[in-house]
């Protein structure tokens, strides 16, 4: 149990682990949906502390990773226009589009700005009435309500030079798609806690029942993950498949009603493409007809974009839990955070980045004497 | 970006008809929109994501999470200068002629430094000693 001393409460961690070890009698495969959870797991070596018969499969829950290449290319195209101020969260800066990223657009003279909140982008729009301000609206159910509020405010305040490039995705249809895939091995889910803080747990009982999988709402800290795994394993061993909330301190069954009402007003459900995976029915949001005037895709004609994914990148399989990052041939050689081929290597929540940051030294073969060493200095974490 | 961080409400006011608060996360302070938790009060804790309070949190869990995030450097990841981080990820120096263009609400230098080490932890502890709410 090599990393257990790093746990906030090592004694409690040990008790949870002992319980899991004592409970498991058969092999089980659980998927943690959220990329934040993947990072906690790899960073603390939780997968190595669990019994060998409990496998954690990484899910597609990283909004940066699943934003389709076409949308990134549209963002790059809009951000390059002279009269545009393009605002984005910081973790989109290095996500590769076809051939370049937002960071490069900025160094080529594009006015790309990083904001902490979408409301900052709205303020920039008010301060620059002669220019078009576009906000890159990506994210899951946790980020969609803030973006929805921003569009609502823009309409209320009559800020006509603001628009949203929307690429919002929803978790439950992704779980549905994963369970329907013929190659699916997942037997239980750790559902993403903060998504449920907003949405509540109402979308999950149907999924759990239909696919006979336990779904345990789980937080992001190491002890949260252990407790989520413990509850899922107990259900599996007993042959149960219910929705259980192991993150009650931040998740109420009804979610956040004010946020849900705003989502309902501003967005409507639509099919969405997920990078590396393809189109998942009903898995996203777009602006509803009332707010269509704030849709950047309508305001700027960005057509005729030719996307080109690097052939070596297997992030689609990584995102579906079919391949572990280090099993990709490009991992740590052709593809590193400095020179990422796929978004899963560049995003702070991406599975490839997690393996690179915390596991690289164990996974890459030692460099031969006399050859160029592929290993860079260990990153500061 | 996906990280939602617990913070403590310091004061509450209105801007353009919107309920806003100043919220402290360890050593960093940010303007946060309260429209989704309209009855949140000064002294209470909430989970905050991209400038919006999304769900209440009790003080003890908030404090524990903040301490852990500070230790793991995750607050720096969330509130540090994104251009600098992106430049580092790309293996280069600050590449542009002008000064780093951080978020308009970037905390003052002293406060931002608080997230770089373990300094954020005493700040959270201090909030508790003040008596919380
Ligand atoms: S290691 Fe790089 S190339 Fe391989 S799947 Fe991950 S992002 Fe793609």
TrEMBL record, chain A:
Keywords per UniProt? Iron, Metal-binding
Query: What GO terms describe the biological role, i.e. biological process, of this protein?
Result: protein maturation
- Molecular-function GO terms, alphabetical: 4 iron, 4 sulfur cluster binding; carbon monoxide binding; iron ion binding
**Pfam families per record:** HypD
InterPro entries membership: Hyd_form_HypD (IPR002780), HypD_1 (IPR042243), HypD_2_sf (IPR042244)
NCBIfam families per the UniProt record, alphabetical = hypD (TIGR00075)
What family does this chain come from, according to its entry?
Belongs to the HypD family.
**What protein am I looking at?**
Hydrogenase formation protein HypD
Identify the species of origin.
Streptomyces subrutilus
Gene that encodes the chain = hypD
TrEMBL record, chain B:
- Gene Ontology MF terms in the entry: carbon dioxide binding; iron ion binding
Any single GO BP term: protein maturation
* Region (Disordered) location: 84-133
Entry superkingdom: Bacteria
Q: Give any Pfam family that matches.
A: HupF_HypC
Q: Where is the composition biased (Low complexity)?
A: 97-114
SUPFAM superfamilies, per the entry: HupF/HypC-like
Q: Which Gene3D superfamilies match?
A: 2.30.30.140
Query: What family is this protein classified in?
Result: Belongs to the HupF/HypC family.
- Give the protein name, as stated in the record: HypC/HybG/HupF family hydrogenase formation chaperone
Source lineage: Bacteria, Bacillati, Actinomycetota, Actinomycetes, Kitasatosporales
């Amino acid at each position: 149990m090599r990393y257990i001393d790093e746990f906030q409460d090592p004694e409690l961690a040990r008790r949870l682990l002992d319980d899991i070890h004592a409970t498991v009698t058969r092999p089980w495969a659980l998927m943690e949906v959220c990329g934040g959870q993947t990072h906690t797991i790899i960073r603390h070596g939780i997968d190595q502390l669990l019994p060998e018969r409990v496998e954690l499969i990484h899910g597609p829950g990283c909004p940066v990773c699943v934003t389709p290449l076409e949308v990134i290319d549209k963002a790059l195209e809009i951000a390059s226009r002279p009269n545009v101020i393009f605002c984005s969260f910081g973790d989109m800066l290095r996500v590769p589009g076809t051939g370049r990223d937002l960071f490069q657009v900025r160094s080529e003279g594009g006015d790309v700005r990083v904001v902490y909140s979408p409301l900052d982008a709205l303020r920039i729009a008010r301060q620059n009435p002669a220019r078009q301000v576009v906000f890159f609206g990506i994210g899951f159910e946790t980020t969609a309500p803030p973006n929805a509020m921003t569009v609502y405010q823009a309409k209320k305040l009559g800020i006509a030079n603001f628009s949203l490039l929307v690429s919002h995705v929803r978790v439950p249809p992704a779980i549905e798609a994963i369970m329907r895939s013929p190659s699916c091995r997942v037997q239980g889910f750790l559902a993403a806690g903060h998504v449920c803080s907003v949405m509540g747990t109402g979308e999950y009982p149907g999924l759990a029942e239909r696919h006979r999988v336990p779904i345990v709402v789980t937080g992001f800290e190491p002890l949260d993950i252990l407790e989520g795994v413990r509850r899922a394993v107990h259900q599996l061993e007993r042959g149960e498949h219910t929705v259980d909330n192991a993150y009650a301190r931040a998740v109420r069954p009804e979610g956040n009603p004010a946020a849900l009402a705003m989502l309902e007003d501003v967005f409507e459900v639509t099919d969405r493409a997920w990078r590396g995976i393809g189109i998942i029915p009903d898995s996203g949001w777009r602006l509803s007809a009332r707010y269509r005037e704030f849709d950047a895709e309508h305001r700027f004609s960005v057509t005729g974009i030719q996307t080109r994914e690097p052939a070596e990148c297997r992030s689609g399989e990584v995102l579906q839990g079919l391949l572990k990052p280090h099993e990709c041939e490009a991992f740590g050689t052709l593809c590193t955070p400095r020179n990422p081929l796929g978004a899963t290597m560049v995003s702070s929540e991406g599975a490839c980045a997690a393996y690179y940051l915390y596991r690289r030294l164990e996974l890459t073969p030692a460099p031969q004497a006399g050859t160029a060493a592929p290993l860079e200095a260990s990153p500061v974490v | 970006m996906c990280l939602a961080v617990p913070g403590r409400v310091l004061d509450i006011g209105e801007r353009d008809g919107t309920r806003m608060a100043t919220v402290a996360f360890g050593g960093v302070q940010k303007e946060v929109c309260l429209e989704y938790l309209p009855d949140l009060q000064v002294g209470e804790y909430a989970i905050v994501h991209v400038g919006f309070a999304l769900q209440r949190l009790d003080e003890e869990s908030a404090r524990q999470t903040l301490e852990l995030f500070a230790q793991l450097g995750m607050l720096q990841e969330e509130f540090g200068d994104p251009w600098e981080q992106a430049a580092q990820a790309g293996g280069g120096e600050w590449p542009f002629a002008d000064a780093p263009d951080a978020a308009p609400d970037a905390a003052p230098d002293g406060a931002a430094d608080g997230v770089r080490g373990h300094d954020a932890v005493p700040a959270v502890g201090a909030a508790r000693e003040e008596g919380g709410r």
